Fold these 3 entries.
Entry 1:
Amino acid sequence: MIVHDFSNENSVLNQFVLEMRDVSIQKDSMRFRKNIERIGEILSYEMSKTLHYKTEVVKTPLGEKEMKVPETDIVVCSILRAALPLHTGVISFFDKAENAYISAFRHHPDGGDAFEVIVNYLASPSVEGKTLILTDPMLATGKTLENVLKAFKSHGMPKEIHILSIIGAKPGIAYIQDKFPENTHLWIAAVDEKLNSRGYILPGLGDAGDLAFGVKL
Ligand SMILES: O=P(O)(O)OC[C@H]1O[C@H](OP(=O)(O)OP(=O)(O)O)[C@H](O)[C@@H]1O
C-alpha cells in the first residue's frame, strides 16, 4: 500500500483538518460536514494525478484541441455514516463515477473495550476491473476497512483501490498495510500516533459520525 500523507505538506487542507479537530469549532455540524466535503475534493484532485489518462479531441468554436482526460471506470464507495460528505466531495470531481454504499458499525459484545465490526448493508455495482475509491474520514484500528474489503469479494476484483481518509492512526494504517493489495493507495490528510483502549484515535477529533450527523443510540 502506498501512503500519501498530506500533513507533511503546507496547504489549506491543514486549516480544514484543524477546524474539524477544534472543540470550539467542530460542534458546528454544518461547518464540520463542509470541511469533510472540501477535504474530499482536495484528496480527489491529488488522487486524480495518478489515474490512467487517454487523449480526447475537443472541438471549440475556433478549432480542435487534443487533451488528456482520465479514462478510468470509477466506483466510489462510502462507509456509512461519516463518509457521506466525503462522498459528495469526491463525486463533485468524478461526476461520471458509479456509486456504492456500505454500512459498518462497532459491536461491543460484552460492553467492554473489545469490539467486532458488523457489515450488514452493501449496495454496489460490480467493481471488476474498475478503480474502487473507498471513503471514510476516520481510520482508527483499520478493522472497518478490513471488513469492507471482505464484503467486496462478492463484487469482483477491482483494478486498483484508493482509500480516501481524513485522520488515521499509525497502528490502524499498519494493520491494513498487508490486508489490501500492494497497488492500493491511501490518501490521508493527517496521521496521529496512537489509539486509546477503546480504539479511538489520539488526539484525533472524536466521533466523526456523531459530529456530522448527531449522536446515535
Ligand atoms: O478503523 P476503525 O477502528 O474500524 O474505525 C473507523 C470507523 O469508525 C467510525 O465509524 P463509526 O463506527 O463511529 O460509525 P458512524 O460513522 O456511523 O458514526 C469511522 O467513520 C470509521 O468507519
Note: The longest strand covers residues 98-107.
Entry 2:
Amino acid sequence: MAGSGKFFVGGNWKCNGTKESISKLVSDLNSATLESDVDVVVSPPFVYIDQVKNSLTDRIDIAAQNCWIGKGGAFTGEISVEQLKDIGCKWVVLGHSERRHVIGEDDQFIGKKAAYALSQGVGVIACIGELLEEREAGKTFDVCFQQLKAYADAVSSWDNIVIAYEPVWAIGTGKVASPEQAQEVHAAVRNWLSKNVSAEVASKTRIIYGGSVNGGNSADLAKKEDIDGFLVGGASLKGPEFATIINSVT
Ligand SMILES: O=C(COP(=O)(O)O)NO
C-alpha cells in the first residue's frame, strides 16, 4: 500500500496556481513540521507536477487530479497513468464531483479508471458524494453506495485505495458538513465495505472527508471515529493552514 500511516490528508490544488505561486507554496510546505502518522499528498495541476516533484520534500507524495482510462497512445489531450508514474506520481484523484458534474464522467468510467490506475501500481483517492438536492431528498446513502459499487465492481484489490467522501454541497461553499453529518456517512461507507467487500477492507481503508475543511474546523471533524483525514481544496493552497489541518488529524 502506498503509504502506511493511520491517517491521510490530501491537498487538491484543482486548476489553480502559477509557477511562482506554487514555488512559494512548496517552500512553505518544505518548512512545515508534520505529524509522522499522517500520509500527505498534494495534487498539482498536471503542468506543475514535475516542478513540484523536483522541489517538494519527499515527506509529501504527489497525486494527479485525473488520468486516462487505459494505456497511452492515440488519445489526444489525455495523460496516461504510465506517464504520471514516470514523473513520480504515487496517487491519482478519481471521481471528483467536478469530474462527475462539470465534465460528465459517469460511475462506470470512473471505476474503470480506478482499476487501471491500481493495475499500474498507482494509488487511488476514490471520491464519492451527493448533491444538495440528493441529500434533501434523503438519497445520500443511495448515491454514495451506488458510486462505491462502481469502484467495487471494477477493482480487484482495495490495498491502494483511499475513499474521499465529499458532499458536493460543501465543496467550495464554506458550508462544511458538521462532524455528525460527516461521521454518519463515513460510518455507513465503512459498513457498506464490510458487507460488500470484507471486514478487513472496511477496517483498513482510510475514509477521508472533503468539503470546506479549514484550519478552524478540521480538529472537530478529526475527532470522529470514522474520519481518517481530509481531502482539502482551497485551504491546501495556503501552506501554513494546510500544515495545521494535517497536524489536527492525530
Ligand atoms: O474539492 C475538494 C474540497 O474543496 P474545498 O476544500 O475548497 O471545499 N476536495 O477535493
Note: The beta strands are 7-12, 38-43, 60-64, 89-94, 123-128, 161-165, 207-209, 229-232.
Entry 3:
Amino acid sequence: MFDTALKPVHPIDLRTYLVADMATIGAGDVVRIIDEAVAGGATTVQIRGKQLGDAELLRIVTAVADRLDGRATLLVNDRVDVYLAAREAGAAVHGVHIGQSDGGAEAVRERIGVHAVLGLSAAAPEHLAEAAALPPGVVDYLGVGAVRATPTKPDAPEPLGWDGLAHAIALAGDLPCVAIGGVGPGDARDARAAGAAGLAVVRAICAAADPRAAARALREEWDRGRTPNVLSIAGSDPSGGAGIQADLKSIQATGGYGMAAVTALTAQNTRGVTGVHVPPVAFLRDQLEALSEDVRIDAVKIGMLANASVIEAVASWIAGLASRPAVVLDPVMIATSGDRLLDADASRALDALIALADVITPNLSELAALVSGEVAGSWEAALEQARTLAARHGVLVLAKGGHLEGDTAPDALVSAAGVVASFESPRIDTANTHGTGCSLSSALATIYAREAADPVAGEPDTDAWAWSARLAHEWIHGAILAADGLDVGQGNGPLDHSYSARAGLVAPRRDAELDAWWGDIVPIVDGIHGDDFVKSLGEGTLDAARFETYIAQDSVYLFAYSELLARAGELSTDPAEKAFWRASAEAAIATEMELHRSRGAGERVPASRETARYLAHLDRSSGEHAVLVAALLPCFWIYEQVGLTLAAKNHDGHPFGDWLSTYGSPEFTESTQQAIALVQRAARRADDATLARMRQAFVLSSRHERAFFAQA
Ligand SMILES: Nc1ncnc2c1ncn2[C@@H]1O[C@H](COP(=O)(O)OP(=O)(O)OP(=O)(O)O)[C@@H](O)[C@H]1O
Ligand SMILES: Cc1ncc(CO)c(N)n1
Ligand SMILES: [Mg+2]
C-alpha cells in the first residue's frame, strides 16, 4: 500500500536534480552514485533505465529507495508500471517523470493518484502552452531543455539557449521548471535569471569521478542565492577597520548580505577615537523599523551601543520582532585604543539585551566588567568568568583571549555547564588588530545564519554555534595574518577582510570536516574495493575456505569490537547517544554468536596478526570519547560502502547471498548515518588537538580495515 507519509512536501525541491541514467552508470554503481549525490546535496533523483527490463529496473529503483529512505525525492522515468510496483512493495519512491510521448499527463495522473509526483518534459512552445493549460494538480513540475546540445540526447531538437529557456519558462505559467541539457554549476545564475527552480544534470554527476563533490558544487552554486540577510546594529568607524564598516566587510566575506543600522558615529582612526556623536535614539528606531517592515532578517550582530537609551531601543525592537533572528552581541565597552564606547552607567541596561542574545562575545576586560570582577590574568580564570556569565544570563559566551600574553590566541565557546568548544591559533605578531572583535562577531552571526538555513537533523543549537564559532575563528585568523599587507594609518591598523575572496576561498562549510576525513581515506577505500577477496566475494567465485578464514576472524573482531562499542556508550554523556552505542554493541555480539553458530559452534580461533593489530589500535583509542568514536567509524562507514557494492551483486542462489544482504541492508545504512552524525557532533565540539587525534584515529582504523580484508 502506498503510504501517504511518503508524499513529499509540495512544491518539490528541484534545486539539484539528478537524472541517474542507467546507460551512463553501471547497475553495480547506481546505489552508490545516487547515495553520494544525495549526500552532496542532490534534492531530487530520477532513475532513467530505458534499456532495462521491468524486473531489473524495479530491482534498482527499490534498492535506491531503500538506501535514500526519503532523503531526496525519488522518481522513475517513463515506466509507470515500475513505479507502481515499487510503491506497492513499500519503497520510498515518490512519482514519475514522463516525456511528451508517454501517454499523456492526465492519463498518467489517473493511474498514479493525487499524492504522487508527476514531472513532464517540455521544450517546444506548443508543449509548454499545453502543460500550462492542464488543470492544477495534474503536473507538478516541468523539465525544460535542452538548454545546450548534449551527447546523452543526440537526437534532440535545436537547443534553447538562455533566452529560449526564459521564453519557455514564461509560457509554463506557474509550473516550476527545472533546466536541463548541458548545464553545470556555472549556470546557476543564468538558470535562475531565466526563472528556473533548479538545474538537472546527467553526466555532470553520473560520470563524475567524485559524484558527491559534483553534486555539492551544483547545490552550492544554486544556494548562493539563499544568502542570509545579516544586520549590524553598531557604531560607525570612518577609518573602516571597526564598527559597521568592519561588520559589513566581514558579513560579505563570510557569505552574507550585510545591512547596517547606525547607533552612533565616532571620529576615529587607527590611533584612537577623538569624538562620539549619538544621534537621537528615535532615529535609530526609525532605521530598525524600516528594516523589519520590509526585510527578512536572519541574524543580527550588535556592537557599539553608546548609552542606556540606545540599548533599550535595540532590546525592545528585538523583543517585538515577529520571528526572532539569531543574535550575537559584542558587548563593546572600551576600544582597543582604550577609549570608552559605552557610558559607565549603561551596564545594567545591558542585562536586558544580553537576555535576548544567543551568544555574547566579550574580550577579557568586558568579561571582567560583566561579572564585576578583576580582569582575568589567565585563560582558566577567563573561562571561569565566562561560565559564570553564561549561567547568569542563560546565553553562550564566546570568550576571547586576544589580549592575553602567550604564544597562542585561544577562544572558547562556554555555556553554563562549562566549555562547549575551544579553538586555539598561534598568536600573530602584529599591531594590526583594530576591529578584530567587531569582525569576529559579525562573521559568527553570518556563518551561523548560513549554516542554520541548512540544519543537521536533530543537532542541538549549541553544536551549530560551536561549529560556526570554529569557522569564524579560522576566518578571523586568516584576516589578521593578512593585515600587515595593507597600509592603513599609523596606529593599530585594520584586518584584511577581503583576504579569503582574493585567495578564491569559498567561505568554509560545516561538513568540511568529515568530508576531509573521507578524502584522506579514498585511496584506502579504493584499495578495498579492488581487493581480490572483496571482488571474488561479490562475484561468488570466492574459495569457501578463504571465506571461512575471513568469517572466523570477523568473529574474533566482533567479540572485542562489541566491548569497544559499549565503552563508547559509557564515555558518552548524551542518553540518545549512549543508547545508540549500546544497541550497536549488542548487535555486534549477536552477529558474532550467529556467525559462531553458523560455523558449527566449534572452537573460537585466535586473532590473526591483522585482527590483533586493529583491535589494539581501537583499544588504544578508547580513553577519550571523541577519539574512540572516530576510531570506530570506519567499521561502519567503509563496511557499509563496501557492503552496498557487494549487495548490488547479490542475486538468488548467490553462494554468499545471506552474508551480502546484511551489509547492504537499510538498517546498517541507518546505523552508519547515525554513527557519522555522532562523530560529526563530537568533531564540532572538539578542540584543535582533539580534532587532530580524531582524524588520525579514523585514518588509522581505515588502514586496519584494509589490512583486515586483505588478510583473507
Ligand atoms: N595577535 C593575535 N593573533 C591571533 N589572533 C588574535 C590576535 N589578537 C586577537 N586575535 C583574535 O581576534 C579575535 C578578537 O579577540 P580580541 O580579544 O582581540 O577581541 P576584542 O578586544 O573585542 O577586539 P576589538 O579590539 O576589535 O574590540 C579573537 O578570535 C582572538 O583570538
Ligand atoms: C564604532 C566602533 N565600534 C566598535 C569598536 C571596537 O573595536 C570601535 N573601535 N569602534
Ligand atoms: Mg571588542
Note: Residues 544-571 form the longest helix (28 residues).
